Amino acid sequence: MKKKLDEMFPREIVEALDEYIIGQKEAKKMIAIAIRNRSRRKMLADGIREEVSPKNIMMIGPTGVGKTEIARRIAKLANAPFIKIEATKYTEVGYVGRDVESMVRDLMATSLQMVRDEMAASKEEEVTERVNTRLLDLLLPQVDPAEGLMEESVNQTREKFRDLLLRGVFDEKEVEMKVNPSARVEIGVMGSGNSMDDLQEAMNSIGNLFQKPKTRKVKIKRAREIIREEEMDRAVDPEKAVDEAKVRCEEMGIIFIDEIDKIAQRGNTDGRGEVSREGVQRDILPIVEGTKVSTKWGAIDTTNILFIAAGAFSLSKPSDLIPELQGRFPIRVELADLSADDFYRILTEPNNAITKQYAALIATEGVKLEFTEGGLKRIAELAHEVNQTNENIGARRLQTVMEKLLEEVSFSADQLVGQTVTITPEYVDERLKDIAQSQDLSRYIL
Fold first, then answer.
1. pLDDT by residue (tens digit) across 231-288?
2. Which residues is 219 bridged to in the sheet?
3. Cys-Cys crosslink for 253: which of 51, 81, 100, 274, Cβ 3.0 to 4.6 Å?
4. 293-315 burial code (b ≥16 CB/10 A, e <16)
5. What is the mean pLDDT of residues 45-60?
6. Mean pLDDT in the chain?
7. C-alpha to C-alpha distance for 205 and 149, rounded to whole angstroms
8. pTM assigned to the model
9. 3-state SS class at 178
10. Helix residue ranges, H only, 1-87
11. What span, in angstroms and rounded, lies between the C-alpha atoms of 201 and 105?
């Protein structure tokens, strides 16, 4: 059985990231230690545990070198609440846009959904049985014993229908059913300090309480989804779910703040926009330092939430952030530019390598796509050359190179059924010769 993220040791976390991300050993190591320290903190005695706070991390490096991908993979590994947000989407209090406290509300919502899913999964068999019983009731109207039908005969018919139902025979059959409007009202929904979005959602939920169920014609496949959602809600104790979700959010939550460099004050500017950017930083500061944020589920303490920030810092530098915010990210790690060898490894080693993705896509048309080692090295060299000559966009360059390289194969795949297309160095040079020879590389590749 695969380990959960909070059960993994730093070495194991790095090994898991290595399956998808090439290089950047230092960044992966620091992230792994920070995440493992969350689990270690949980094992401490109460007194010392309160003194240990997360060591927030700042990742610095050009675009396309793996900052966001590290966060995305951590999210897939995590059984801890995790969200990724972009700093540029937030505005200073008093301006139009999202307020920074919404990131904490989003984290709590993610935590609650995780807990609900786990609670529902623990009652999977019970829920499935109730769903199938209700579907059978829709397919076979209840029989009145007074009609004189034998109970044994009715049961036999239901069992036959159950078998057909489980085999999907009735999926496209239409039935009439009563559909209740969504009316889930969270505990503490009208508490003080809620955002306008929370209050609007609360008003909509309360309004739904007064709506009568509507009779609709739906296919069994859709009816199963509707009934399953209803039964899942019934299977989960809402108060218990909220209590558990709050603990996880506060103790194990992770917020990844991308593009934090975009809200830094930049040197040599005329000052326009600087006030707003600094305002967003000052709004973020108390959340990172530790404060209580009001949500519709109650107040969430951010003291022990781990914050990971990332930015290219191409037009600014970390020291352009306000000093107080800099101090809240004591761990700094710089991600290196990718070399031609890194590009080659990205093309061949990860489980989700782009070459494997294209081969799978083309295979759906009955065409086999093969890459020789020489062909892969030539692709890597060309991608690295374009990055060096033009704007450096890191590993994203491979996507645009591959699109151009395989454009003709993708377009004419229906005429190549049963054939094998081999990508050799000669094939790469032939398809991309205009790019390789052109001084104005930006005309061909973004």
1. 887 888 889 999 999 999 998 888 999 989 988 876 555 555 555 788 889 999 999 9
2. 174
3. 81
4. bbbbbebbebebbbbbbbbbbee
5. 86
6. 81
7. 44
8. 0.72
9. strand
10. 10-18, 25-42, 46-49, 67-77
11. 13
